């Protein structure tokens, strides 16, 4: 009979395993325990078992040989063949496998005339690797690929078969050249060799395999052999021996016991043959609740019998089980953090959050930080989210972008960037480069482009950037190479990273590779370099994406036991652990259980033909973990009602437990107070008072006594902007590497028209159209307008030029003389003293009939007459007011006869004229009077500068809206504040 045992789901697994083994060995032989061998699924399980032995034996002792096998959810095979004296070819390193497969994908793509880059090929190679490992793990036959889809089906399947042929036809030869085995084949061979050794020479000492579900076929075969050994034992986690035979016969892949049933079939044991490993305090009532709630759907009619007996067993199983439903993931994390924090109030009590949701795990760790509790998710975090990872990623991205301003500054502002200087001095230079050099300009590509943008007068900044450029130059040279080896790119990347991260007191490697994240970065770099030997990289453009993907996949794990009483674990890691409180978090469909993964390559019938298991198998494994963990003495189940703003569906297991309890009249505690506590934790005390619209009242002596014509409109629309701009003297920073847009287009057109009119003040030349277009093109090119933008702007200007010239010819007959960019001023008397209005007029045309026309070129939408009258668009009439007083240099006092907008890109014509309908002189005088009243109003200290006084709330955005905190008060009211 096979030696198969079980430890109930509700019993502490590791403790029961230790006590059972100690009860079986000869206590008189001090070496008996050390001769035993124990095989466990995970490294954490091995550590836990060692600790349990130490506690049970009262301190130091000779322990058994404890080995970690690895399970289907593990990233890698954990058994060390060399430690077991198994003679096998080495396993190919994961990155080496990825690079070689990427090269094959690229070859396949080029043969089909494709254009994949190396990073895209590597992404496809990752999918190929996963598929191939699944095929080899389950012993599927790739030779059946040709028979998967009949020719009548869509051509897509033919392409899939052709692509997967890479694995069947090319990959074995590559592995042979490498003298290595694929990871799955290496694992299968290792387990098979160990099983053969046990069969051919059965050990006479105890050999125990505990906690494994045999989800890997090769592991199941090893367990079969161990179960037959003279002193062998296979200890199953949470085998349900009470489930009725009908349900047992109808188990589906999504049921918690499906894997146990498969494993018993491989071992050749019946469920009735399985014995208890050792007496253990089990939660029989809880196991009954979970068994009934999760029983196969075709047999749920058994619930009627439970109802007839009053559901007492179910009610007893609910004791110690609670449900917390939070409003959103943030509240769920805060509630869980409160549960863990509460546990620490009781001496020696332990608690753990178990969840497959890494985002929830990180949120909980962050929430615990408010009580200075340091705890990390045992799954770690991606290297790309750590300082060394982000620094290396930013460096690669900056090089790929030819060190454009935005990625360059992101790199240089990283805390690890120091350029062999003190970190503070280096950061000060970076801020200087940002503020005074790179704002509002678009330098030429490359490091030389940045260097040339630095003013020659700033010698200190130029010298500093020359040092920085010297550090970055090797990577720029590699990035500009036409063809290169991947190893050359890696070497340059790391050389520059180590040099740039050095300070004046500490070398770069010491800073870059410090701590767990630095060690992970060093490990990735070493493996990447080793795995990239003889791999070509067509161009550098794909390097940054390739490195980023590898950094994202590399986990940085914390030191074991960071907190002595609290843990955050994944379901597989928690399988052998026991805690006073277990929180099962993230119980929503798609998270726990995860959605059945869609196969990118094969349909379900194709998987079956090939001999692969269906995706629901993983849901069954997750269900087993859930049922085992939920059987503990004190368990809280949590979920968020919404995820990313949308309603979330509760986990099928949670739904079943709730429905069973409801149908039997038992009360599942869904009112644990933790969600309410979490919501109250950050709630404001009392009702929040709406923030008032700011309206500062500076002393009159601090208020501006002069403004340009263009700021009067701003003063009326948004007085707060004048306060920030003219009193606080704040200016918005120009954008970094900003795209050329409407502002630059308008400036260029204004300049082109000014140059043309200045060059031809009298009669227009015969080739006026060609000359005007050439003038515009010269100006566009002088401001480094990109070719893609020029391709849009020039055709528009070419269409507008004839229309403008037609207007110009007609108006020239009325004009005596034109004045371009005329500067003018006018003084207004105010209660606090004189107020100066100044500005430049685009064009003032003295008319032969007397008076003058004031012209404004508009590339945007001209204002309405109503806006002009109330100073919301007052530039032209204010210029008319200056003209009335003779304020324009070289012109003298004239009456404004016409206020004219010449609008480019008009609706009906490429160029349109828009005249103010009110008499120009009347309008100019009226606007001057209104301005005088406005000046007097703000010469009163009681008048504040309210934000967005006459701005349509939703449509317009101001440069100082963030300073005025517009979003805080604009939805609650417009009451003025201070």
Protein model, in words:
The chain is of the alpha/beta class. It folds into five domains: 4-87 and 187-282, Rossmann fold; 94-177, no CATH class; 313-380 and 563-681, 3-Layer(aba) Sandwich (Rossmann fold), CATH 3.40.50.300; 382-556; 694-734 and 824-843 and 862-892 and 920-978, no CATH class. It is built from 36 helices and 23 strands. A six-stranded parallel sheet has the order 3-2-4-5-1-6, with helices on both faces. Strand 16 and strand 17 form a beta hairpin. The radius of gyration is 38 Å and the shape is elongated. Residues 72-76 have low confidence and may be disordered.
List the domain count as a whole number.
5
Shape: elongated
- Derived from helix and strand composition plus strand pairing, the structural class reads alpha/beta
- Provide the low-confidence segments as ranges: 72-76
CATH superfamily of the largest domain: P-loop containing nucleotide triphosphate hydrolases
CATH class of the largest domain equals Alpha Beta
Total helices: the number is: 36
With strands numbered from the N-terminus, the spatial order across the biggest sheet is 3-2-4-5-1-6
The major β-sheet equals:
6 strands, parallel
Named CATH topology of the largest domain: Rossmann fold
Number of strands: 23
Chain-wise SSE layout:
Blueprint: E1 4-7, H1 13-24, E2 37-40, H2 43-56, E3 65-68, H3 94-111, H4 118-137, H5 155-178, H6 183-200, E4 207-210, H7 217-228, E5 232-237, H8 245-249, H9 258-267, E6 275-276, H10 284-293, H11 303-308, H12 312-318, E7 321-326, H13 329-343, E8 351-354, H14 358-368, E9 381-382, H15 387-400, H16 405-412, H17 423-436, H18 446-453, H19 459-479, E10 484-485, H20 486-500, H21 508-512, H22 515-531, E11 536-537, H23 543-553, E12 555-556, E13 566-569, E14 581-584, H24 604-610, H25 616-629, E15 635-640, E16 642-643, E17 646-647, H26 652-663, H27 674-681, E18 706-708, H28 709-717, H29 719-727, H30 742-759, H31 768-782, H32 787-812, E19 815-830, E20 833-847, E21 852-858, H33 865-869, H34 875-884, E22 896-904, E23 911-915, H35 920-938, H36 966-969
Parallel strand pairs: 1-5, 1-6, 2-3, 2-4, 4-5, 7-15, 8-13, 8-14, 14-15, 18-20, 21-22
Antiparallel strand pairs: 9-12, 10-11, 16-17, 19-20, 20-21, 22-23
Helix pairs in contact: 1-2, 3-4, 3-5, 3-22, 4-6, 4-23, 6-7, 10-12, 10-26, 13-14, 13-27, 15-16, 15-20, 15-23, 18-19, 19-20, 20-22, 28-29, 30-31, 31-32, 34-35
């Amino acid at each position: 009979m096979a030696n198969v045992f079980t430890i109930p789901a509700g019993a502490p697994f590791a403790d029961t395993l230790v006590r059972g083994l100690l009860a079986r060995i000869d206590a008189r032989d001090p070496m008996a325990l050390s001769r035993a061998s124990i095989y466990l699924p995970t490294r954490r399980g091995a550590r836990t078992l060692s600790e349990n032995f130490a506690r049970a034996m009262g301190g130091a002792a000779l322990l058994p040989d404890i080995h970690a096998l690895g399970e289907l959810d593990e990233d890698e095979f954990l058994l060390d063949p060399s430690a077991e004296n198994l003679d096998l070819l080495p396993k190919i390193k994961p990155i080496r496998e990825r690079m070689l497969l990427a090269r094959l994908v690229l070859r396949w793509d080029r043969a089909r005339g494709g254009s994949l880059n190396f990073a895209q090929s590597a992404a496809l190679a990752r999918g190929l690797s996963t598929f191939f490992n699944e095929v080899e793990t389950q012993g599927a036959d790739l030779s059946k690929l040709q028979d998967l889809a009949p020719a009548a089906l869509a051509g897509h399947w033919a392409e899939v078969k052709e692509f997967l042929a890479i694995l069947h036809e090319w990959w074995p030869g590559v592995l042979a050249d490498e003298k290595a085995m694929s990871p799955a084949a290496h694992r299968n061979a290792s387990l098979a060799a160990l099983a053969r050794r046990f069969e051919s020479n059965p050990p006479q000492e105890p050999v125990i395999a505990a906690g494994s579900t045999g989800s890997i076929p090769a592991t199941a075969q090893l367990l079969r052999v161990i179960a037959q050994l003279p002193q062998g034992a296979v200890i199953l986690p949470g085998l349900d021996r009470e489930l009725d035979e009908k349900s047992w016969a109808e188990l589906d892949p999504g049921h918690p016991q499906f894997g146990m049933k498969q494993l018993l079939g491989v071992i050749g044991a019946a469920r009735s043959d399985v014995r208890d490993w050792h007496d253990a305090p089990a939660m029989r009532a809880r196991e009954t609740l979970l068994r009934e709630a999760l029983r196969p759907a075709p047999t749920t009619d058994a619930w009627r019998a439970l109802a007839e007996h009053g559901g007492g067993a179910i009610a007893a199983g609910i004791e110690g089980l609670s449900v917390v439903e939070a409003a959103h993931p943030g509240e769920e994390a805060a509630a869980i953090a409160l549960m863990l924090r509460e546990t620490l109030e009781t001496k020696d009590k332990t608690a753990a959050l178990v969840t497959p949701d890494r985002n929830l795990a990180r949120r909980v760790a962050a929430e615990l930080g408010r009580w200075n509790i340091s705890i990390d998710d045992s799954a770690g975090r991606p290297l790309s989210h750590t300082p060394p990872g982000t620094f290396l990623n930013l460096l690669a991205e900056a090089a790929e972008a030819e060190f454009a301003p935005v990625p360059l500054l992101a790199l240089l502002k990283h805390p690890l960037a120091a350029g062999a200087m003190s970190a503070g001095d280096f950061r000060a230079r970076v801020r200087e480069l940002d503020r005074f050099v790179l704002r509002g300009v678009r330098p030429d590509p490359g490091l030389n482009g940045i260097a040339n943008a630095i003013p020659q007068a700033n010698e200190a900044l130029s010298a500093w950037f020359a040092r920085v450029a010297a550090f970055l130059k090797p990577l720029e040279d590699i990035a500009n190479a036409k063809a290169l080896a991947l190893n050359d790119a890696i070497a340059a990347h790391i050389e520059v990273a180590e040099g740039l991260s050095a300070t004046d007191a500490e070398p770069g490697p010491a800073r870059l590779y410090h701590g767990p994240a630095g060690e992970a970065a060093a490990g990735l770099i070493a493996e990447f370099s080793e795995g990239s030997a003889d791999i070509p990289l067509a161009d550098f453009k794909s390097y940054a994406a390739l490195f980023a993907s590898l950094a994202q996949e590399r986990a940085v794990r914390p030191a074991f036991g960071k907190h002595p009483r609290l843990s955050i674990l994944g379901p597989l890691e928690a399988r052998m652990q026991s805690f006073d409180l277990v929180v099962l978090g993230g119980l929503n469909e798609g998270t726990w259980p995860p959605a059945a993964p869609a196969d990118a390559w094969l349909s379900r019938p194709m998987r079956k033909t090939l001999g692969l298991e269906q995706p629901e198998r993983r849901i069954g494994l997750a269900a087993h973990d859930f049922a085992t963990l939920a059987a503990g003495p004190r368990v809280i189940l949590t979920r968020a009602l919404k995820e990313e703003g949308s309603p979330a569906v509760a986990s099928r297991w949670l739904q079943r437990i709730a429905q069973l309890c409801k149908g039997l009249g038992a009360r599942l505690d869904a009112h644990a107070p933790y969600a309410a506590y979490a919501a109250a934790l950050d709630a404001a005390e009392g009702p929040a008072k709406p923030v008032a619209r700011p309206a500062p009242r500076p002393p009159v002596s601090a208020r501006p006594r002069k403004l340009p014509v263009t700021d009067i409109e701003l003063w009326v629309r948004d007085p707060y902007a004048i306060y920030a701009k003219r009193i606080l003297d704040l200016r918005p920073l120009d954008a970094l590497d900003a795209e050329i847009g409407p502002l630059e287009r308008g400036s260029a057109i204004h300049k082109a028209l000014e140059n043309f009119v200045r060059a031809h003040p009298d009669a227009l030349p015969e080739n006026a159209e060609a000359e005007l277009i050439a003038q515009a093109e010269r100006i566009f090119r002088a401001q480094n307008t990109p070719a893609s933008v020029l391709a849009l702007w020039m055709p528009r200007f070419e269409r507008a030029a004839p229309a403008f010239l037609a207007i110009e010819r007609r108006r020239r007959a009325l004009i005596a003389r034109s004045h371009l960019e005329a500067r003018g001023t006018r003084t207004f008397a105010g209660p606090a003293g004189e107020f100066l209005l100044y500005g430049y007029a685009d064009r003032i045309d003295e008319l032969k009939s007397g008076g003058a026309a004031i012209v404004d070129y508009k590339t945007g939408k001209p204002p309405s007459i109503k806006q002009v009258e109330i100073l919301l668009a007052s530039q032209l009439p204010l210029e008319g007011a200056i003209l009335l007083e003779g304020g324009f240099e070289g012109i003298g006092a004239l009456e404004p006869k016409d206020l004219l907008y010449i609008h480019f890109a008009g609706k009906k014509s490429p160029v349109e004229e828009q005249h103010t309908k009110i008499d120009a002189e009347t309008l100019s005088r009226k606007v001057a009077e209104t301005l005088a009243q406005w000046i007097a109003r703000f010469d009163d200290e009681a008048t504040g500068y309210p934000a967005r006084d006459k701005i349509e709330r939703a449509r317009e955005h101001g440069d100082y809206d963030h300073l005025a905190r517009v979003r805080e008060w604009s939805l609650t009211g417009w009451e003025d504040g201070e």
